[in-house]
């Protein structure tokens, strides 16, 4: 049999689970990031794949031998770089069931379970986040699990393009891109929006960068209004405005409510990108992250960043359940299906770019089941408290300064001794090996970012980080 038997799988599975548990148990003792020369790992492979099979019993040890000194440990409690990418053990158990089911949930009928669990958990999460009922499958909209926020942005843009110029006969726009489509972002909007514009073939002129209100990192609604009007006067079509809640750089937010109001004057789609920050709405004290979202067209937040769910699980909700299928549904004979034709079911293939899709909802369900909303809130609140405490310490320290006010669990700082000192600080801190931070720029100046959010990060790790931050070399 060209596979393990179930009994062989059972035996080996225990070994693999032990290896995972051991690696997690010991992760804090290893450096957050290994230092290696490019090509190190590839050089350990033979040119040709082995002709003969080998026992998998030694595979975890082999993987460790080949890759164990060439990794960046995103699950390390000292990992405070970029944004977190929580891969909780809870979610890994759900992911195991998902991989085992091995279904392609492209149509409802190709796995009713895959489709309906996804509908149920995205509805539950919409309610837990305080999203309006219109974003639920029960309420005429609905959520889906995409591979990433970047894909979510592309999907939203595709739907927006369709809505801006539907073809009455074919459904889909027969004319194609006219070169007059316009998409509005702020200087701090994630680069995935610019990529979506490229992938959609809209051309560089389609991307309009609206300035921020003076002294802020938030899109200026008055400037947006002026840009929209000027474009409409030039016969351009405002297709989509992206409002960000919690930018990747500094955690700043655009004024969603005001943006929705301005966009509505010209019928532009509003996509809210809250990839990192959106999950904080689970906590009533952080509900501000969904202010104004009720009238947006789509809302995205990543469960795979700060919500304990292993990559990939980007949640995309739309207010109109027909919006994505209208733009994306194509039905060749080999996908024709009686349940689909009945209109009584959702085919999630029509909510995304690829056809096939995994049973991603299982890992999210496992997280909801195993942690409960209370556990998720505790996870989020712990990191927000660490950020508050770090900010307090920085305020009381002569050598360091907050580059901007902390947002949720993100703290941006620089040295009071200038840009060169800030760059040196980042280098020195990361060379220590116990923590990993990343950088950004604010008003042209280098900034050190501390994004708390890794699963095991506790007060002890804050103390450790602080000790490293303030140590003099
Ligand atoms: C991380 C991030 C993204 C991209 O997320 P992926 O899921 O990795 O594609 C988009 N927007 C914002 C604001 C982000 O922080």
UniProtKB/TrEMBL annotation:
InterPro entries: Aromatic_deC, PyrdxlP-dep_de-COase, PyrdxlP-dep_Trfase, PyrdxlP-dep_Trfase_major, PyrdxlP-dep_Trfase_small, Pyridoxal-P_BS. The keyword Protein transport does not apply. SUPFAM superfamilies: PLP-dependent transferases. Its EC number is 4.1.1.28. Gene3D superfamilies: Aspartate Aminotransferase, domain 1 (3.90.1150.10), dopa decarboxylase, N-terminal domain (1.20.1340.10), Type I PLP-dependent aspartate aminotransferase-like (Major domain) (3.40.640.10). The keyword Lyase applies. One of its GO terms (molecular function) is aromatic-L-amino-acid decarboxylase activity. It comes from the Bacteria. Its cofactor is pyridoxal 5'-phosphate. Keywords: Decarboxylase, Lyase, Pyridoxal phosphate. Belongs to the group II decarboxylase family. This is Aromatic-L-amino-acid decarboxylase.
């Amino acid at each position: 049999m060209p596979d393990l038997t179930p009994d062989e799988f059972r035996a080996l599975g225990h070994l693999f689970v032990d290896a995972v548990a051991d690696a997690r148990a010991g992760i804090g003792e290893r450096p957050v990031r290994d230092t290696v020369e490019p090509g190190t790992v590839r050089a350990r492979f033979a040119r040709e794949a082995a002709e003969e099979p080998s026992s998998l019993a030694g595979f975890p040890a082999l993987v460790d031998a080949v890759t164990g000194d060439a990794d960046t440990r995103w699950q390390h409690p000292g990992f405070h770089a970029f944004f977190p990418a929580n891969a909780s053990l809870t979610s890994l158990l759900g992911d195991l069931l998902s991989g085992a089911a091995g279904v392609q949930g492209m149509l409802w009928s190709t796995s009713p379970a895959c489709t309906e669990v996804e509908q149920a958990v995205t509805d539950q999460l919409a309610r837990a986040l305080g999203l309006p009922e219109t974003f639920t499958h029960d309420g005429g909209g609905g959520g889906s699990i995409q591979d990433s926020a970047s894909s979510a942005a592309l999907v939203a843009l595709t739907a927006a393009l369709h809505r801006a110029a539907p073809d009455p006969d074919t459904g889909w726009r027969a004319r194609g891109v006219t070169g007059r489509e316009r998409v509005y972002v702020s200087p701090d909007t994630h680069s995935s929006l610019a990529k979506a514009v490229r992938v959609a073939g809209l051309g560089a002129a389609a991307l309009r960068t609206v300035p921020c209100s003076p002294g802020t990192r938030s899109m200026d609604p008055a400037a947006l209004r002026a840009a929209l009007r000027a474009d409409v006067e030039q016969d351009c079509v405002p297709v989509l405005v992206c409002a960000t809640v919690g930018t990747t750089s500094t955690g700043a937010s655009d004024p969603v409510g005001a943006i929705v109001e301005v966009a509505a004057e010209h019928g532009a789609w509003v996509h809210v990108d809250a990839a990192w920050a959106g999950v904080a709405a689970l906590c009533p004290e952080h509900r501000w992250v969904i202010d104004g979202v009720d009238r947006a067209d789509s809302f995205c937040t990543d469960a795979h960043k700060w919500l304990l769910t292993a990559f990939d699980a980007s949640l995309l909700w739309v207010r109109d359940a027909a919006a994505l299928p209208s733009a994306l549904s194509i039905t060749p004979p080999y996908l024709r299906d009686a349940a689909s034709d009945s209109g009584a079911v959702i085919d999630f293939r029509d909510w995304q770019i690829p056809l096939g899709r995994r049973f991603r909802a299982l890992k999210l369900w496992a997280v909801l089941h195993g942690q409960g909303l209370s556990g998720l809130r505790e996870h989020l609140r712990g990191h927000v408290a660490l950020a508050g405490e770090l900010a307090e310490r920085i305020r009381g320290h002569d050598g360091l300064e907050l580059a901007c006010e902390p947002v949720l669990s993100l703290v941006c700082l620089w040295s009071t001794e200038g840009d060169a000192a800030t760059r040196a600080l980042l280098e020195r801190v990361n060379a220590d090996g116990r923590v990993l931070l990343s950088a950004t720029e604010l008003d042209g100046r280098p900034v050190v970012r501390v994004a708390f959010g890794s699963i095991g990060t506790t007060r002890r790790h804050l103390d450790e980080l602080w000790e490293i931050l303030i140590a003099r070399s």
